[in-house]
Write a structure and sequence with these properties.
alpha/beta, FAD/NAD(P)-binding domain, seven-stranded mixed sheet, five-stranded parallel sheet, globular
Length: 473
C-alpha cells in the first residue's frame, strides 16, 4: 500500500514539530512519522531534566557559604538523592505532557507511529506502508554514543537516556566526556553527594578553545572533582565487580560510568543510500545550512540529526526553515543567527560568535575582565571566572567571546544580541549599565578593548560611554 502526500516529516522532536507548524500554514496534506518516545529530547532526557538536577544541586551547595553570611545550621542539611530525582521526573513529566498536549495528542491519521526508512528516492516505508512524498523533512534526532565494547557492561553504563530513571543511586561515578552535558551532570551529582571523577581525551573542557578561559574553567571545576584530560579513557571489569576506568596513569574504581561522548545521528539508520541524495564522507547528507535542503533534492534536514548545531534553539530554527521550504516550490535562503553555547555549570561556561581559533592573528584585540573584584559577584560569593571579548581592529566590531562566569547565560545573550546587530564596542559601551550587576563585567571588558583601539576616540575628549546629542541626530 502506498500513500501519497505533499510533505512527509520524519521525527516529532523540536525540529519536527516546528517543521510541522510551518507546513500546516500551507497544507494539511502531510504526515508526521515518529519512531520511539514522544515529547522531544529536550523535555524528556535533555536540557530540562538536567536543569532540574542542577537547580537542586546548586540549592544544596549554597549551604557552604552560610557560615560567612552568619546563617547557622547549614551543616545539618542533607539531600535525599532518590527523592530529588523523583522530583526531577515529576517536573520532566509535566514538561513532556505539555509538549504532547499541544502536538501529537490531537493528531489523527496524519501521525504515524513507527520507524521510517528510504526504499527509493522520495519514498519512505514505515510499518509496511509506503509514503510517497513530494518533499521530505528529516528531523530524526540523535542517540548518545556508547562505544560498542562498553555496551557489554549493561546498566552500569549510563547515558542521559537512562540517568534520570535511576531510583537507587551509586556512591561513585566516572564521567567520560567533559563537554556541556558531562560537566553539568558531573558537578551536579558531586554536589548531591556522589563521588565523581571526570575524563576527557581533550586538553580543555566545555568546548572552550581559548587557552586562558579553558585554564580558568579547569582550575575552578577541578577544585570540585578530579579531571583527567588529554588521554583516552578505557573501561574494564574490576576485581570487586565494579568498573575500572583508566586513562594514562590515572585509574579509578566506580559503581557506574556516565558516558557523555556526544551523539550519533539517527539519519544513519534510515538507509540513506536508497534516497538518491548527495552524501558527505561521514555518511550524512550534503545540505545547505541556510535552506536545509539536501543538494539536488526535495529532501530537507533539521535538528540534531544533521550534525550542524546540536542545540535546541538551532533545532527550532532549522525545523521552521525546513518546514517552510518543504511546503513550497520556491526555496528561500534564510539567515542563521549568531552561534552560541552555554554549559550550565557553576560558573557557566559559554562561547559566543567567532571562536578564537577561527580568527586571524593581528586582526583583533582582546578585552577581558576577571570576576574576582567584581562587586556583584563578590556579594553572591561567586567571584571566580574570566570574560574575554574578541574585537575586530579595523572597525571595533565585536566578533565573539568566551567566558567562565557567574550568570554567564545572561552575559552570553547580551553579547550574542550585540553581534547579531553588528554593534561596535563603542556602541555597546554607550548602553546603560546598572550597579551593582554582573553586566558591569561586560562594561569593564568593553573598556579594556576600547583602550586598545585608540582610533575609536581619536579627536574626541569626552567619555566614550557618553554620546553627545549631535552624534545621534
Amino acid at each position: 500500500m502506498t500513500r501519497k502526500v505533499k510533505v512527509a516529516i520524519v521525527g516529532a522532536g523540536t525540529a519536527g514539530l516546528n517543521a510541522m507548524a510551518q507546513v500546516r500554514r500551507v497544507t494539511e496534506d502531510f504526515v508526521l512519522i515518529n519512531g520511539g518516545p514522544l515529547g522531544t529530547t529536550c523535555a524528556r532526557v535533555g536540557c530540562m531534566p538536567s536543569k532540574v538536577v542542577i537547580q537542586v544541586a546548586d540549592d544544596f551547595h549554597r549551604r557552604n557559604i552560610f557560615p560567612r553570611e552568619g546563617i547557622e545550621g547549614g551543616d545539618h542539611l542533607n539531600v535525599n538523592i532518590e527523592d530529588a530525582f523523583e522530583h526531577v521526573r515529576d517536573i520532566r513529566d509535566i514538561l513532556v505532557d505539555g509538549v504532547l498536549s499541544h502536538s501529537t495528542d490531537e493528531m489523527g491519521d496524519e501521525f504515524i507511529d513507527g520507524y521510517a526508512r528510504f526504499v527509493e528516492p522520495g519514498v519512505l516505508e514505515v510499518n509496511g506502508e509506503r509514503i510517497d512524498a513530494e518533499s521530505i523533512v528529516l528531523a530524526v534526532g540523535s542517540t548518545p554514543v556508547v562505544p560498542k565494547n562498553w555496551q557489554s557492561f549493561g546498566d552500569r553504563i549510563l547515558t542521559t537516556d537512562t540517568l534520570f530513571e535511576l531510583e537507587t543511586w551509586p556512591e561513585s561515578i566516572a564521567v567520560i566526556g567533559l563537554g556541556a552535558i558531562g560537566l553539568e551532570l558531573g558537578q551536579a551529582l558531586l554536589r548531591m553527594g556522589v563521588n565523581v571523577t571526570g575524563f576527557d581525551v581533550a586538553d580543555a573542557i566545555g568546548g572552550i578553545d581559548d587557552a586562558d578561559v579553558a585554564k580558568v574553567a579547569i582550575d575552578i571545576i577541578g577544585k570540585e572533582f578530579p579531571l583527567h584530560l588529554g588521554e583516552p579513557a578505557d573501561i574494564s571489569e574490576a576485581e570487586d565487580g565494579r568498573l575500572k576506568v583508566s586513562a594514562g596513569d590515572h585509574t579509578v574504581i566506580v559503581d557506574k560510568v556516565l558516558v557523555a561522548m556526544g551523539r550519533r545521528s539517527n539519519l544513519l539508520n534510515m538507509d540513506l543510500d536508497k534516497a538518491g541524495i548527495t552524501m558527505r564522507e561521514d555518511s550524512l547528507p550534503e545540505f545547505n545550512p541556510n535552506t536545509l535542503r539536501v543538494v539536488g533534492s526535495r529532501v530537507f534536514v533539521a535538528g540534531d540529526g544533521d550534525g550542524y548545531r546540536q542545540i535546541l534553539h538551532e533545532a527550532a530554527d532549522e525545523g521552521r526553515i525546513a518546514g517552510y521550504n518543504a511546503a513550497r516550490s520556491e526555496v528561500i535562503t534564510f539567515a542563521r543567527t549568531v552561534p552560541f553555547a552555554i554549559a550550565f555549570t557553576d560558573p557557566n561556561i559559554c562561547h559566543v560568535g567567532a571562536r578564537v581559533s577561527e580568527l586571524e592573528a593581528d586582526t583583533y584585540v582582546v578585552g577581558e575582565i576577571k570576576f574576582g573584584p567584581l562587586g556583584r559577584a563578590l556579594i553572591m560569593g561567586k567571584n571566580k571566572g574570566l570574560l574575554k571579548l574578541y574585537v575586530r581592529k579595523i572597525d571595533g566590531r565585536l566578533l565573539g567571546a568566551s567566558m567562565v562566569a557567574p550568570k554567564g547565560e545572561n552575559l552570553a545573550h547580551l553579547i550574542a544580541w550585540s553581534i547579531e546587530q553588528n554593534l561596535t564596542v563603542r556602541d555597546m559601551i554607550a548602553m546603560p549599565y546598572y550597579h551593582p550587576t554582573i553586566e558591569e563585567a561586560l562594561q569593564s571588558a568593553l573598556r579594556s578593548a576600547i583602550g586598545q583601539l585608540p582610533e575609536l576616540s581619536e579627536g574626541k575628549d569626552y567619555p566614550l560611554d557618553l554620546r553627545p546629542l549631535h552624534e545621534l541626530v
